[in-house]
Amino acid sequence: MPTPPPSYAPPPAPIIDRVLLTNDDGIHAPGLKVLEDIARQIAREVWIVAPEHDQSGVSHAISLHTPLRAVPYGERRFGVGGTPGDSVVVALRHLMKDNPPDLVLSGVNRGGNLGVETVFSGTVGAAMTALLLGQRAIAMSQTFTDPKAIRWENARTLGAGVVRRLLATPWPGQVCLNVNYPDRAPEDTGPLQATRQGAGRVEHIDVDARMDPRNVPYVWMRFERGPRDNPPDSETEIVMGGGVSVTPLAFERTDQPALAALKAGLHGA
Length: 269
Known about the structure:
Stationary-phase Survival Protein Sure Homolog, Chain: A; single chain
């Protein structure tokens, strides 16, 4: 296994007792195995509660009108027939209610979660749901260029050191953290950097109209990505430049200049 760069040597940090893992790619996803490898280096006890099937793009959704089942897949491992948010709620309010985790890790996602794309991300949605329930949470994603050659070894090699550094660095209780790894080998990866969200790379959402074998029309939705203007300290610029980004995310989305303009306009009216 490649040796991490010196900047990733983890500082002294407490080893946590218990960690909860989830994702949006499903309980059998390779990225979840990577996350488990990371978690076993930083926690004495690892719980996995994840969707039984791929739930990419469901954001913070929870199932209010459908009963949920937690299917055991081994010791402290459950598949939930719902969303990433469902998995977190079932874990924290049911399966682990008497022994809550010290940390929730979501991922490692197959592909980056950068910019406005985080609004749709089930990986980030799971971390935000944990935040809503009072838990520290970190979402992790591995970017790629070639979907047939995802560099899982990057997140696997650097992940434990990244988590240890973040646990040793206080962050406000009203945010979760969104980490993205670049599409590079671990030894070629730059340092962990605090970033802002930025615009990301999603230009728009398009529809691909098709016809099924019975001549019934249907559509696939897809993101169209491309270069966009992002500030130098945005997660997109840092990750595209080969570094690891960590962005604090909060539920508060109020645009302050727009709020001030609305107040002024309504007061004048």
